[in-house]
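User: Can you help me understand a structure? I only have the sequence.
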Amino acid sequence: MIFDPEELLRYEKHFLLPELGWEGQKKLKNASILCVGLGGLGSPVALYLAAAGIGRLGLVDDDTVELSNLHRQILHSTHDCHESKVKSAQRKLCDLNSHVQLDLHKVRLNASNARSLASSYDLIIDGSDNFSTRYLVNDLAFFLKKPLVYGSVFGFEGHCTLFDAAQGGPCYRCIFPEPPAANTIPSCAQAGVLGVLPGIIGTLQATEALKWILNIGESLVGRLLQVNALSMKFREFHLRQSPRCPLCSALPAIRELIDSEESCRLLSPMNNPISPVPSIAVEELEKKLRSGNPLVLIDVREPFEYEICHLQGARLMPLGSLPLELSALKREQEVYVYCRSGGRSAQAVEFLGNNGFAKVFNVEGGILAWADRIDPTLQKY
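Assistant: Let's start by predicting it. Here is the structure, written out as tokens:
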């Protein structure tokens, strides 16, 4: 018998759902999911997947439980402090559902161990809280041709989507090709996060994972869901595969798993590092905009990023389509280019400079620097 008497009672409400039923619960029992990170996002992810009856859960985390974690990391308790998160998680999840096989990986994911850890799982969930792991997990899912459920939280805002590049969808690098410059984005530990927010996003991630395994409903592939806990508004942004993505485009710069430090050096076109480009600080740009002198301000981010926030008067020209937009620009004009944190705009300035634009400048730090030092009311992401 596939389910023992206890399981028949445990999953009774699943059996009642026509979209799930007996066959769907069998799919869940036969499925395997790797959860990277057992913190704020990983806690609800692991709890709900175990409760749902996922047959095998891989748990990756090298950290220990700290008291400051507990307002959001509900998988752990006060008496777990200073113990490894994987051992703490093992106790809670076994107590919740002993029918789930737990694979414990008390390691930090890196380019050397990622493939061996992830290759036997059906799907990966990113519950990490740092950019180096986030980019590595994205690249790992792409190379292994596995779906990746992405989530992130910061302050009062969170995001969730499903990346499935094997099915033609975008990957994380299609949206954010380069990691932000060091120290430009504080972590949750530095900037804070509303404790319930990871619960909302993590539950959404678990939901997307279950839907993918069951092949039911409409997934978030190609859609980024944004949650603002202060306004309690949910917004949706459409994502597309970038023709200049350094990972999944026709001419990728990244062809193997690499750790974040090396990744940052590979993001310019044709694998050549970006040479220093003419730049301007946000304070100087603000003075120029107030002066009223004629200039062109270009935003090279993606349309969904522009919807979240943009500088007044900026023209949206995503980096991937910039070569097609040259005819709309005059080479004698002053051109100022910005993106999220300065990496994509530096590429754009180099490209424009190589195509005859003599007065083109990169806005240092991008729109994040503008929000920090010029307009704190601007929504950050």
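Now, to help you interpret it: The domain at 274-373 is CATH 3.40.250.10 (Oxidized Rhodanese; domain 1). The CA atoms of residues 352 and 360 lie 7 Å apart. Let me know which part you'd like to focus on.
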